[in-house]
Amino acid sequence: MVTGNKSGACNALLLQGEGEHFNCSSLNGIISPGLEAAETATPGPFYCHLVTGRDCSTPKSQRQCVISIHQRFLSAAVVEVEVVVVVVVVVVVVVVVVVVVVVVVVYSSIVAVVVVVVVVVAVVVVVVVVIIVVVVVVVVVIVIVVVVVIVVVVVVVVVVVVVVVVVVVV
Fold first, then answer.
1. Are 26 and 9 in contact (CB under 8 A)?
2. pLDDT tens for each residue of 106-163
3. Residue 121 half-sphere exposure, CB side, CA atoms within 13 Å?
4. What percentage of the chain's residues is helix, strand, coil (to nearest 5)?
5. I want to staple 23 with a disulfide (CB 3.0 to 4.6 A). Which of 34, 54, 106, 126 is the partner?
6. Distance separating alpha carbons of residues 76 and 53, to the nearest angstrom
7. What would the pLDDT profile of 81-93 be if each residue is shown by its tens digit?
8. 26: phi then psi, degrees, rounded to nearest 5
9. Would you give the distance in Å from CA 31 to the centre of its chain?
10. Other CB atoms within 10 Å distance of the CB of residue 63
């Protein structure tokens, strides 16, 4: 079942018989697959051509298309994580600035200023460490997923070759 906006490209997918597994809502003119499609469906040549812009009539090019789809999902996930990190950093900076202003106004003494400076430095260090950890975790997850996709594709190819050889020999 195709959901979302049935744009011209989506209608073309349907006419080619390749639209039933894909979410046809478009984003910036790019037709994106549904999550289920990326995980389970085998994209046809027409869909692969929409995604990659290349001729996708061979099984190898269709496998590359599946990898490309997964990379698109990973890119979207990375952007979401980066947005969350930026929002957290902005909130922390605003809170620290407000605390500094309040402390300096209420307790205008050298000790208060020193305490505020120490707290600000500590908060900045914690925020930087959190950002580094988040970026490292995201990169590791991306590498793991890409490796898993490549391994699955290789295993499928080997199984197909073995089956073909067995059928030909028998």
1. yes
2. 766 677 777 777 777 777 777 777 777 777 777 777 778 777 778 777 787 788 777 7
3. 6
4. 75, 0, 20
5. 34
6. 20
7. 666 667 777 777 7
8. -105, 150
9. 16
10. 21
